[in-house]
Amino acid sequence: MMVENKQQTTNNNNRGFTLVEMLISIAVIAVVGVLGGDILIASVRSYNKSQTINQLTQNGDFALSQMTESLRNASVINQVVTNLTSSSISYVDQFGNLKTYNMVDGSVSCSSNDNGSLNDNTNQLLNTNISNNPTARLIAGSFVASTDLKLVTISMTLGQPCSNGTRIDNTATTTLTTTVVVRGGYQ
User: Fold this and answer.
1) Which among 122, 187, 118 is positioned nearest to 155, based on CA atoms?
2) What backbone phi and psi angles, to 5 degrees, belong to 171?
3) Highest mean pLDDT of the ranges 14-28, 103-117, 121-135
C-alpha cells in the first residue's frame, strides 16, 4: 500500500501546465509586449519631434541673428513693406550700401510644396544641408517697424520643409520673434 501512494504522488507532480495556465501566460505576455511597444514608439516619436523643433529653432536663430546684426548696425531704415504673403525691409548698412531682406510666406500645408523663402539681396538665410536640401521652410514672416523706423520687430514661423517623407505625426513648427533697436537712427 505504501508503494502505491508514492506512485500516485509522483504522477501528480509531473502533470505540467494546463491549457488554461498557458493561455493566461500568453495573454499576460502579449499585453506587456503591446504596452512596452507603445511606450517605445511614443518615445521615438517624441525624440524625433524634439530633434525637428531643435533644428528649426537653430535655423531660425541663425537667420534672426544675421538680420538682427545687420539692422542694428544700419545707418537708416528706408522702407518696410508687408502684405498678405510677403514682407520686406530696405535699409542702408553701416558702409552705405543699400540692402533688403525679403520674406515670402510658404504654404501652411504641404499640398503645394511651397517652402517659402527668406533672403537678403543675394543669399538664402534659412540653412540648407550638405545635399542642398532646405532644412526649414518659412510658413509666415513679417517685419514691423515703429513709425520713426527706430524699432523693428521680426517675426517668423518655421516648419519642416515639404517632402513626401514627412509623417503627419512628426511635423513641427516654431515661432521666433525679436525686436531690434536701430543704432544708426540715433546718431
Assistant:
1) 118
2) -75, 150
3) 14-28
